[in-house]
């Protein structure tokens, strides 16, 4: 059973506190917009798709619990707009959050303009739209997993001849989404089809999303996997690439620019370089909500910088006589006092290093000129259905 990081029913929202993983599974109740903002900012919930959903649902919970109001439909629209704007400030690099806010604002504006619109009708329209986001994300992730697994089997030498191994970075699974995952969803899909030999995950310093979260999910799902530090990736591809049949590296994304440049967890850029050198595929897995056609290239992406203490300190339960003591959690300093720290949360991988962008409607490949045409996956045919790209 895939982990459930977001538990929701109308009027009640709980999130799995990811800061306490992998040792303790604790769900936090989110009852207001402020609680949602805090959970995102403190990284108790993280991952671009999950951030957007938790933000949207925290406002839905807030509105549902407010009850009846004599205010106008216009007042409801203005309140929702202001709360969405506030939620976007929690993690500005993750484009899914801003994209969700734009779409929800547009829907609310339309609902407020109805001739018989009321506060209640506008609120109900918002809540239903936020709930649909949760449903759609799971379906999109499962589609991403299928398309990515199919592409790997068809477009890598290892995939054409048997099970493959894959390396992934950060956490892109059920804990980062509404369920199943993006890049980790590709690995899950390969495993489910009997096409996965082994999964490798990076530690993902400085916040250790790989060792704490991805490793936790892999163990939970009984997927054969090995943890490495970020600095071991090149050695892994050189020394174990052939014997382990490593076909590629698959990562998620916090923002994909119109030209394919991708902002993702710090360390992604280095992995793309090592993939190119060692001749393995480098794939980005992300729903279309992560693609920002208004951002022309990676040069226009503002990178969030995190507190220096995330690099100089680590937190976790203590070991007493060889036994994990969950009741005693300590923060330990691991750096020289007084040293300066630079801690960007993300880096930008140039499109030229990316072999394919896996979306819920297919895998986008470069054209004959080496360019990604990401606009094409937003175009609809005459029946209103999105076309499949990349031959899948």
Describe it.
There is one protein chain. This protein has 392 residues and is α/β, with parallel strands linked by helices. It folds into 2 domains: 6-137, translation initiation factor eif-2b, domain 1 (Four Helix Bundle (Hemerythrin (Met), subunit A)); 143-304 and 341-378, Translation initiation factor eif-2b, domain 2 (Rossmann fold). 39% of the residues lie in helices and 20% in strands. The protein has 12 helices and 16 strands. It has helices spanning 33-41, 48-66, 73-88, 95-112, 119-155, 157-161, 183-192, 209-220, 233-239, 241-244, 268-278, 309-312; strands spanning 6-9, 12-16, 27-29, 164-168, 196-202, 225-228, 246-251, 255-257, 262-265, 281-285, 291-292, 313-320, 323-333, 346-349, 356-359, 362-364. The strands form 4 sheets. The chain has a 7-stranded mixed sheet, sandwiched between helices. α9 (233-239) packs parallel to α11. The chain is globular and about 70 Å long. Mean pLDDT is 92; it is low at 380-392.
Topology overview:
Elements: E1 6-9, E2 12-16, E3 27-29, H1 33-41, H2 48-66, H3 73-88, H4 95-112, H5 119-155, H6 157-161, E4 164-168, H7 183-192, E5 196-202, H8 209-220, E6 225-228, H9 233-239, H10 241-244, E7 246-251, E8 255-257, E9 262-265, H11 268-278, E10 281-285, E11 291-292, H12 309-312, E12 313-320, E13 323-333, E14 346-349, E15 356-359, E16 362-364
Parallel strand pairs: 4-5, 4-7, 5-6, 7-10, 8-11, 10-15
Antiparallel strand pairs: 1-2, 2-3, 8-9, 9-14, 12-13, 15-16
């Amino acid at each position: 059973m895939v982990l459930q990081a977001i538990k929701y029913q109308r009027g009640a929202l709980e999130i799995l506190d990811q800061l306490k993983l992998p040792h303790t599974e604790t769900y936090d109740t989110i009852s207001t917009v402020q609680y949602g903002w805090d959970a995102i900012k403190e990284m108790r919930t993280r991952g671009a798709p999950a951030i957007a959903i938790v933000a949207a649902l925290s406002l839905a919970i807030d509105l549902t619990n407010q009850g009846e109001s004599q205010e106008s439909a216009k007042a409801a629209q203005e309140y929702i707009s202001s709360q969405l704007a506030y939620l976007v400030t929690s993690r500005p690099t993750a484009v899914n959050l801003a994209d969700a806010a734009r779409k929800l604002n547009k829907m609310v504006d339309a609902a407020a303009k109805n001739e018989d619109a009321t506060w209640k009708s506008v609120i109900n329209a918002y809540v239903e739209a936020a709930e649909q986001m949760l449903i759609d994300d799971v379906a999109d992730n499962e589609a991403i997993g299928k398309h990515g697994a199919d592409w790997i089997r068809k477009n890598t030498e290892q995939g054409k001849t048997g099970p493959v191994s894959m390396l992934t970075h950060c956490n892109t699974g059920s804990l980062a989404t509404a369920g199943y995952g993006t890049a980790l969803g590709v690995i899950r899909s390969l495993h489910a089809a009997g096409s996965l030999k082994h999964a490798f995950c990076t530690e993902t310093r400085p916040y250790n999303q790989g060792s704490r979260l991805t490793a936790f999910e892999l163990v939970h799902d009984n997927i054969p996997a090995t943890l490495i530090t970020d600095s071991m990736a090149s050695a892994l591809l050189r020394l174990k690439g052939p014997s382990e049949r490593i076909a590629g590296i698959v990562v998620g994304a916090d923002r994909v620019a119109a030209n394919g440049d991708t902002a993702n967890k710090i360390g992604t850029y280095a992995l793309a370089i090592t993939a190119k050198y060692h001749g393995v595929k480098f794939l980005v897995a992300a729903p279309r909500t992560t693609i920002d056609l208004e951002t022309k290239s990676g040069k226009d992406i503002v990178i969030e910088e995190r507190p220096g203490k995330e690099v100089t300190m680590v937190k976790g339960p203590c070991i007493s006589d060889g036994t994990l003591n969950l009741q005693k959690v300590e923060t330990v300093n691991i750096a020289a006092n007084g040293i300066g720290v630079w801690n960007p949360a993300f880096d930008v991988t140039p499109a030229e290093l990316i072999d394919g962008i896996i979306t819920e409607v297919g895998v986008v490949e470069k054209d004959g000129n080496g360019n990604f045409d990401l606009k094409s996956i937003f175009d609809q045919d005459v029946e209103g259905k999105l076309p499949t790209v990349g031959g899948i």
